[in-house]
Task: inverse folding
């Protein structure tokens, strides 16, 4: 795993996670009548989406840099 790339992406991920939009959405979910069931489901879905998008961005960065495991399958890149 390339820790330097993760360190470059982490501040952007934190900024996205702490932006005002999810904070407003959390407040709206928590004041809803079904807050006990919707709150944890919203948090789990939000974290799963953040993890998925971060993993996809990291995988794409690895492929674009030529260090991905899929690159060896394509001889036209000349590696």
Result:
């Amino acid at each position: 795993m390339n820790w330097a790339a993760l360190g470059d992406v982490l501040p952007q991920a934190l900024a996205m996670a702490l932006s005002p939009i999810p904070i407003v959405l959390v407040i709206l979910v928590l004041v809803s009548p079904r807050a006990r069931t919707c709150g944890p489901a919203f948090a789990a879905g939000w974290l799963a989406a953040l993890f998925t998008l971060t993993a996809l961005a990291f995988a794409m960065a690895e492929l674009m840099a030529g260090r991905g495991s899929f690159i060896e399958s394509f001889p036209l890149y000349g590696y």
